[in-house]
Design brief:
heterodimer; A: five-stranded parallel β-sheet; B: 347 residues; eight-stranded parallel β-sheet; two-stranded antiparallel sheet; 10 helices; binds zinc ion
């Protein structure tokens, strides 16, 4: 099996998405893959822009250092859209990620329902493999 | 004028404290209708719930089941922008029914202008997903009913955000012409000029992206120079307008700089696209500054009714004039490429 070369991971500042980034950095480091960390700018975010497309948030820079991840293989993207659509777009040009990584959070999530869970929505519509990193994941 | 409101079930149960898509928006819309001073010329009709059969023309059945179950389980956040409450399913099906009701009324009267004052808004709702404050795509449900009746429907979407849901739903439908002016780039990320429709509906999607700061003159120029000839060729029998007012300069959700006077000019433009009276309906989409919402709705409806009321003067002089030429070029290339791919794949 061909190993992956380019992971895309969704990041919204939450603990769950931070855990997903941790998993992605560690997994990518082991196979020398590139990591694209993408933040979706939703409708409401226009009222309180949190992230600049030009500046990797310091907490992510900190994680990259913690994992001794080669920063030249780390990309930071801020893109308009809802979290699900934006992550799905990462599987297409120009990013062409060969796997998508997402935290398991879903604030409105109800048992047995897809609605309200970004991770399940992404998994349902994705054209490449999806890794859903549980919030209980601990890096050893 | 035919005004259709959410009802008999009030929209006030669809609320998330602090969220800009709030019931007060409807109060502002009603104030604008009052400002019209129509007296007996105002026909107020209550909506009915759109049936499942009417909704599945544009939405996926599984999605409808999920949304209903999600609401009845108490609701919550569907994504970072979009919420639903216990009442939201009922309210959203009334909002979708409001568009059907306005069509009934206008057809029966063969006269007047329709205004669908219902929420939640709809143009971001995809066939199988809620997003961008939208649960059901109200204007798409109405357009699908008109298609069933054999009509050719022009949808003009002047909300500041691209109506990705409406575009997706009618992407390959030759009898719907979707024309959108919007700030770009901006949420939801779609709406570039090169998105022109599917292979059976080449040139039936017209996206007119505008840069932040653009004013009414550029929007109107893009509309008349680029969409104008396509609309004329399409020759619509009905005109539905996704009338969001968040392109107003005082709206906090985006950075276009329109005035209520610009909505007056845009309204004149869309009224001229209709073949005869009783064939135009305005659907409320966005608009989050209540004052701007009220004055812009007043400018729109008073113009549609032929008695434009005093308003802010139209704006001009902003950026984006060069975008119009670029938009035209991107469209031509995309239309040609689609045509060519069609020819090469047809045996
Ligand atoms: Zn909007």
């Amino acid at each position: 099996m061909k190993t992956f070369r380019n992971l895309a991971v969704g990041y919204d500042g939450s603990l769950d998405s931070t855990i997903a980034v941790r998993w992605a950095l560690r997994a990518a480091r082991e196979v020398d893959a590139t990591v694209t960390i993408v933040h979706a700018t939703g409708l409401l975010e226009h009222l309180r822009a949190r992230y600049s497309p030009d500046v990797l948030p310091p907490e992510l820079l900190g994680l990259a250092k913690e994992y001794a991840f080669d920063e030249s293989r780390l990309r930071w993207l801020v893109t308009n859209g809802d979290a699900c659509s934006v992550l799905l777009r990462m599987a297409c040009a120009p990013v062409n990620a060969d796997a998508l990584v997402v935290g398991s959070r879903g604030e409105g999530k109800r048992d047995g329902l897809l609605l309200g869970s970004t991770s399940l929505e992404v998994a349902e519509h994705a054209t490449v493999p999806v890794v859903v990193v549980p919030s209980t994941y601990v890096d050893h | 004028m035919v005004l259709v409101i959410n009802g008999p079930y009030s929209d006030s149960g669809h609320e998330d404290i602090g969220h800009p898509e709030r019931p007060e928006r409807m109060v502002a819309a009603m104030a604008a209708v009052d400002d019209l001073g129509l007296g007996s010329e105002l026909v107020v009709a209550e909506s009915y719930t759109a049936s499942r059969a009417e909704l599945v023309r544009v939405h996926n059945g599984n999605y409808l089941d999920e949304l209903g179950a999600f609401c009845y389980a108490g609701g919550g956040n569907i994504d970072d922008d979009t919420y639903a409450t216990f009442d939201s399913w009922t309210i959203a099906t009334y909002a979708a029914g409001a568009g059907l009701k306005v069509i009934d009324e206008l057809r029966r009267r063969d006269d007047g202008v329709g205004f669908v004052a219902a929420r939640p808004p709809g143009h971001h709702a995809l066939a199988d997903r809620a997003m961008g404050f939208c649960l059901l795509n109200n204007i798409a449900v109405a357009a699908a009913e008109l298609l069933r009746l054999g009509e050719r429907v022009l949808i003009v979407d002047w909300d500041v955000h691209h109506g990705n849901g409406t575009q997706q739903i009618f992407w390959d439908e030759p009898d719907v012409l979707y024309v959108s002016t919007h700030q770009w780039p901006l949420f939801p990320g779609s709406g570039s000029a090169s998105e022109v429709g599917g292979r059976h509906a080449n040139d039936r999607t017209v996206n007119l992206p505008l840069p932040p700061g653009a004013k009414g003159d550029v929007m109107l120029r893009a509309m008349s120079e680029i969409a104008g000839p396509v609309i004329a060729e399409f020759n619509p029998t009905w005109v539905l307008v996704s009338a969001g007012f968040d392109a107003h300069r005082d709206d906090p959700m985006a950075d276009l700089c329109l005035t209520s006077g610009d909505f007056r000019l845009m309204t004149n433009y869309v009224m001229d696209c209709a073949p005869r009276p009783g064939r135009v309906a305005f659907f409320l989409e966005g608009g989050y500054n209540l004052e701007a919402l009220r004055s812009s709705i007043l400018a729109t409806l008073s113009t549609a009714l032929g008695h434009p009321q005093e308003d802010e003067p139209p704006s001009n002089g902003g950026p984006g004039a060069d975008h119009v030429a670029r938009t035209r070029q991107s469209r031509l290339v995309a239309i040609e490429m689609l045509r060519h791919s069609d020819e090469t794949e047809t045996p």
